Amino acid sequence: MIYLDNAATTKPDIRCLNLAEQYLIENYYNPSALYAEGYNLHKQLVKTRSDILNLIANDWDYQLVFTSCGTEADNQALFCGGKRGNVVTTAGEHSAVFNCASEFKERGIEVRVAPLNDDGKVNIQSLLGMIDDRTSLVSVIHVNNETGAINDVNGIAQAVKAINSRALFHSDGVQAFGKIPFKMSADVDLYSVSAHKINGVKGCGALIKRKNLIIKPLICGGGQENGLRSGTENVFAIKAFEYAAKSKYENIQLNYKFAQTLNAAMREKLDGQFFDIISPADASPYILSVAAKGVRGEIILHEVNDKGLIIGTGSACSSNDKKRYSRVILACGIDEERADGVLRISFSAENTVEEVEEAANILNETVKMRKEIME
To answer: 3-state secondary structure string, the chain?
Structure first.
């Protein structure tokens, strides 16, 4: 089986699981307990937070709050930051951010949505034009989870602050963390990450927040995570996240270049008679969106699955959405006919060039046969 749906989830790194296994079997204590074993585990988690945080920011400027996933981190950032006036976001956001807009409207907060350019990046001029002195929060995705388009969140955050220094700036960094070489600037207030996108395990994510920024918890209880996210910590998942994150950042440049090689191989091998490339050339090399010409993407997904290839049709988190066309793809200016054939191919450092070339052959053959049947 060839797995090329790594933007949906990644295979856990067995080395990280082996290192973290002791926190399931031996060192299984409650970090909030007063006995020595629990307290020692608490101290380990303090260091783990700092170690993960320092991969992308400075622990003297920022604080890391462990959550259950990237969606929870996004929700905490938005509902703690968007409390008055208006909230500005983009048409390219993950559903974890975009669907919060409906709830904001119910709470009487105006939501302003900036359009995308054809390359999938936010139209920065339009975004900045929506910000005024009543804007409480601006949220811009770092790497689009469907097209791979990369937004310059540090630059955008700086421009936002120049217009309204009191507006909070948040970015969903789930598809960027551990993949795109990047360090947060002081203008970014909140940043969301997830473990299972970088070979950690599901059930663990984090919200990175500016240290002097006061936010409230979404989940109240025993006061874990410095009172910002109650509930007994999933130490096994957290430690697996730590080991996976360190591994990714140790090899981030090498992995990035290898992903570029995989992406280029797929672009080259896909037959232009059957596929249009949607992702821009400067997108994250880990994500490649294409459109099968004249064939529904969902049909292709199932047929290639029968041939041993796993790919996606867009955001896995939106698979329960009954709408036929991706709102993100449509926001890029893609018409409905092309949008109907969209497929998302996403890579990891564990893939090989040979796998990618075989996957391209399977895709070409499948679309060719489907079109012959339709004719």
So the answer is: CEECECCCCCCCCHHHHHHHCHHHHCCCCCCCCCCHHHHHHHHHHHHHHHHHHCCCCCCCCEEEEEECCHHHHHHHHHHHHCCCCEEEEECCCCHHHHCHHHHHHHCCCEEEEECECCCCCECHHHHHHCCCCCEEEEECCCECCCCCCECCHHHHHHHHHHHCCCCEEEEECCCCCCCCCCCCCCCCCEEEEECCCCCCCCCCEEEEEECCCCCCCCCCCCCCCCCCCCCCCCHHHHHHHHHHHHHHHHCHHHHHHHHHHHHHHHHHHCCCCCEEECCCCCCCCCEEEEEECCCCHHHHHHHHHHCCEECECCCHHHCCCCCCCCHHHHHCCCCHHHHCCEEEEECCCCCCHHHHHHHHHHHHHHHHHHHHHHC
Per-residue pLDDT tens over the stretch 73-124: 999 999 999 988 999 999 999 999 999 988 898 889 999 999 999 999 999 9
CA distance 45 to 351: 32
And the tokens for 230? 């109650």
pTM: 0.95
pLDDT of residue 264: 98
The stretch 277-295 carries a mean pLDDT of 97
pLDDT the model gives residue 315: 56
What pLDDT is attached to residue 317?
A: 56
Strands 205-210 and 190-194: antiparallel
pLDDT digits (tens, 9 = 90+) for 332-349: 999 999 999 999 999 999
Closest CA to 169 of 153, 151, 182, 148: 153
Residue 177 in tokens = 């963390």
Q: What are phi and psi of 165, to 5 degrees?
A: -65, -20
Distances (CA, A) of 144 to 23, 63, 324: 34, 25, 19
